[in-house]
Design brief:
It is a single chain. The protein is α/β, with parallel strands linked by helices. It has twelve helices and 15 strands. Helices cover 33% and strands 16% of the residues. Helix 4 crosses helix 10 (297-312). The N and C termini lie far apart (60 Å). Mean pLDDT is 85; it is low at 1-56.
C-alpha cells in the first residue's frame, strides 16, 4: 500500500520522491553554510555587545500561551544598537542574516524549477520586506537554513539576526527569545493517508505512530495531552525529526501512521502528495512571529512597525500568491489579530 502511495505521489508538481532527495541536498547545503560559529560586530549576526541592557519583553509570570502573542514591544522606526550594528556591516557582509526553512512548500522553499533554486514562499516574502526597510534593499539578505530544533539556539548563539520560519509564539519560548507581533494564525492538525482509519485528533490515534519535528509545539502538545489522559496512552509519539518535511517522508515510507504539525504546513504537504490529507479540525490556536534576541529591543520594535505596514500592504498579496491554493481564497481565518503591545513608549 505504501509503495503505491509513494508511486502516486511522484505525479504532479515535481513529485515528493524528488522532495526527499531535495531534503537530503538541503541538509548538505545547510551544513556548508557558515553558521556554526557566533559572529560579532565585525559584520556578524550578533548585534549587541556586552553591557547592553535587557529589554522588557521577558516572559510574564502569568503568561498563557493563548495570550503569548501580546508579549511584544510597541512599534518604532528608530534605530538602536542592534540595527546600527546591522547597518555598519560593510561590503558583501552588509546583509540581514535570517534563519529560514528551505523545505516547506510555499513557506520557505528552495524551488528546483528555478535556475538558481531560489528560496521562495510566504515567510521569504516577509524577510525581503524587512530587509528593504532596514537596509534599503529587499535582496540584502543572507539566508541560513535552520532546522526546527535549532531556531532558538541560532538566535541565542548570534548566528542569525532573526528567525522567520513558521515559528509559533509561546510562553516557553519567550524565556529564550523575543517575538514580534504575530503575522499569521494557524493551529495544529493531523495529516495522514487518505485511506487511513485516523479521523483526527481523537481516539483513532490509539496504537498509531505519530511523527513531529523536534522542538515543535506539536510534540509538546502531544506529550502533555497523553500524560493528562486526553490522548490514548498507546499513541506512539517517539518519532521526532529535525525538519517537518522529514515527517512526510517517514509517512510515505510507512515508518509512521500520521503527522501532527501546523495546519498551514500540513495543507502545503497535502498539496505536494495527493495520497495524504488533513484529518479533522485544528485543535489548537497558534500564531507565528519573527523571533529575535531578547536584548534586541530596537529590532523588535522596528519589525513590529514593518508588520503594521505589511498587514496593510503586502500581506494579502503574499497570501494570495503562496497560500490561497491550499488554505482557501478567504484569508480571514489565517489573519493574525490586531496587535497588542506591552507598553506604548
Amino acid at each position: 500500500m505504501y509503495a503505491s502511495r509513494v508511486r502516486a505521489s511522484l505525479r504532479g508538481w515535481g513529485g515528493v520522491g524528488a522532495m526527499a532527495v531535495l531534503c537530503a541536498l538541503a541538509l548538505a547545503f545547510a551544513v556548508l553554510l557558515p553558521c556554526t560559529q557566533p559572529r560579532h560586530d565585525d559584520g556578524g549576526a550578533r548585534a549587541a555587545g556586552p553591557g547592553v541592557a535587557h529589554g522588557s519583553q521577558a516572559r510574564a509570570g502569568d503568561c498563557q500561551d493563548s495570550e503569548a502573542q501580546k508579549q511584544t514591544l510597541s512599534p518604532s522606526g528608530a534605530d538602536g544598537r542592534t540595527i546600527d550594528a546591522i547597518k555598519s556591516r560593510t561590503g558583501a557582509k552588509r546583509k540581514l542574516v535570517v534563519g529560514v526553512d528551505q523545505n516547506s512548500y510555499h513557506w520557505g522553499y528552495r524551488n528546483p524549477n528555478t535556475e538558481t533554486a531560489q528560496l521562495e514562499g510566504f515567510d521569504i516574502d516577509l524577510v525581503h520586506r524587512i530587509a528593504e526597510d532596514i537596509l534599503g534593499d529587499p535582496d540584502a539578505v543572507q539566508f541560513k537554513a535552520i532546522p526546527t530544533s535549532q531556531r532558538i539556539p541560532a538566535i541565542k548563539d548570534g548566528r542569525v539576526d532573526m528567525v522567520v520560519r513558521t515559528m509559533t509564539i509561546s510562553c516557553e519560548r519567550l524565556d529564550d527569545v523575543a517575538f514580534s507581533a504575530p503575522y499569521f494564525k494557524t493551529g495544529q492538525q493531523v495529516l495522514a493517508p487518505k485511506s487511513s482509519s485516523v479521523k483526527g485528533y481523537d481516539g483513532t490515534l490509539a496504537h498509531k505512530r505519530i511523527c513531529t519535528a523536534s522542538g515543535s509545539t506539536a510534540y509538546g502538545k502531544l506529550k502533555a495531552d497523553r500524560d493528562a489522559g486526553d490522548l490514548p496512552a498507546s499513541t506512539d509519539i517517539s518519532t521526532t525529526v529535525p525538519s517537518q518535511l522529514d515527517c512526510l517522508v517517514r509517512l510515505q515510507l510507512g515508518e509512521v501512521d500520521a503527522v501532527v504539525t501546523d495546519g498551514a504546513l500540513a495543507a502545503s504537504q497535502a498539496a505536494q502528495d495527493p495520497t495524504v490529507a488533513l484529518k479533522g479540525d485544528a485543535f489548537t490556536t497558534e500564531y507565528y512571529g519573527v523571533a529575535m534576541r531578547k536584548d534586541a529591543d530596537d529590532l523588535v520594535r522596528r519589525v513590529n512597525r514593518i508588520l503594521v505596514d505589511y498587514r496593510a500592504d503586502g500581506w494579502q498579496a503574499s497570501y494570495d500568491r503562496w497560500l490561497s491554493a491550499t488554505l482557501g481564497k478567504d484569508s480571514g481565518p489565517s489573519k493574525p489579530p490586531a496587535p497588542q503591545y506591552l507598553r506604548k513608549s
